[in-house]
Amino acid sequence: MERTNQLNQLVGFFYLNGQITRAFHGRMAMNFILEMIIMANRNQLLTLITGADKGIGFETATKLGEAGQHVLLGARNAEKGQRAVDRLRSQGFVVDLVVVDVTDKQGIDQAATKIDDEFGHLDILINNAGIALDNHEKASKLSTAIMRKEFDVNFFGLIDVIQAFLPLLQKAKSAKIINLSSNMGSLGLATDPQSQFYNVNSLGYQASKAAVNFATICFAKELAGTNVTVNSVNPGWTATGFGGRNLNEPTPAGMQTPAEGAEQIVKLATDSKNVMTGTFTESGGTLPW
Ligand SMILES: NC(=O)c1ccc[n+]([C@@H]2O[C@H](COP(=O)([O-])OP(=O)(O)OC[C@H]3O[C@@H](n4cnc5c(N)ncnc54)[C@H](OP(=O)(O)O)[C@@H]3O)[C@@H](O)[C@H]2O)c1
């Protein structure tokens, strides 16, 4: 604040002093603007979203950009990621690309080192990258090769990302890990005969998201009382290309827009109190584990 006052006085002085040459005046004005930008950036939350080149991740990046956060847009494909970054920058948001495949541990570690070198911390980590490869095959028929691929991205990838970025989150004033789970990963809903998920049968995807919830529980317990909160979010059934859905097909009744899917993630990411930890929520409230 004191620095702002000093700068204001300086600008006022040069404004009043008609003797100053136009070039010098212009340079001072530019310096003043740069100082203002640097000061604003210091207060800007730094948020990494994995798998954010499309779908719910991209929508979350859009909303958090709008909210004034500095978004590090994660994408495994550099070209697709850059296109997404360009779209967001054209709207005036502060966005940078982080090329990261969550199944590539070395690449994750390199990305964490680069972000640490450049920014020295991370405020929010949103583990959004996910896949669903099983197609409601019976548990007795689904190949373990498919399940392993789902676990590699949805669970082991998420753990590798958390482990690599936790030291950066611990350097922030107040930090968050938000894990994208699913109502399909809820053991409570899967075993409740009244639930619409009782008859759902996607062992690989469901087990991988139940494992994500367990990661949330374990990390939340380990980090209780520290500056880092850890929560699971269910975006709900959302009209993205997830699981190979054709985006040109009409949206089925009851399917949400990506903006609706991003709602609860954005709510947690913009919650300035940041006291909630170890929860599993959606925009409608709390879900059973
Ligand atoms: N849509 C739903 O109905 C729904 C419901 C419940 C939960 N979810 C969860 O919400 C999250 C986002 O889903 P979505 O609907 O937005 O799906 P989506 O449109 O298919 O987006 C998934 C994102 O994950 C990325 N990804 C996949 N494998 C990756 C890897 N190995 N490394 C890094 N990124 C990878 C994709 O990148 P590419 O563009 O390169 O493929 C894409 O950016 C997922 O975790 C999903 O399980 C979705």
From TrEMBL:
One of its GO terms (biological process) is secondary metabolic process. This is Oxidoreductase, short chain dehydrogenase reductase family protein. Belongs to the short-chain dehydrogenases/reductases (SDR) family. SUPFAM superfamilies: NAD(P)-binding Rossmann-fold domains. It comes from Lentilactobacillus kisonensis DSM 19906 = JCM 15041. It comes from the Bacteria. One of its GO terms (cellular component) is cytoplasm. GO terms for molecular function: oxidoreductase activity. The lineage of its organism: Bacteria, Bacillati, Bacillota, Bacilli, Lactobacillales.
